[in-house]
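Deliverable D5.2: sample structural annotation.
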Amino acid sequence: MTNLRTLVPALLVALATATAHANEVVAFDDADAARAQAPAFSALLPAAVPAAALDRMPEVVERALGLIGIRYKRGAASVEAGFDCSGLVAYVFDAVMGLHLPRTTYEIARLGTDVAKGDLKPGDLVFFNTMRRSFSHVGIYLGDNKFVHAPRTGYKVRIEDMTGPYWTARFNGARRIEGN
């Protein structure tokens, strides 16, 4: 098995030039209802966050890649304690952009804007149905159909390929966290 740490430099180069390969448009289940309930993202931004912070997706990706190998721990959201999937996402966006995202995957899925699978960019959030309910898992898209996430108990933060049969069958949609 290839050591993922040796792949990070190559991934960073690939991310700079990667484009989404899929042409399929995948929407959220009941996307209209989710949009209607979602608060305006600008209302969630701390006053101290400059507009330039919203263009920091390469830093989001870099920070997430730096957490590869940290253990999974349900309900945790720190390097010391470990991460669950939403804790990983919340930690990265707080550390890089100063954004305090909600703590659950379902609540995070209500933020930002819908992104078609073919329009994914590094730093977008990708959601999956892994527990027989929509938006039960989240990861950070890296480019080239790869994402980083905290999988489950007994595993560590790692990179996955969204084109594998497991993830393809469970993909719920994607969101882009940006201010408008």
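Annotation notes: Confidence is low (pLDDT under 50) at residues 1-54. The chain has seven helices and eight strands.
The annotation will be released with the project's public dataset once the embargo ends.
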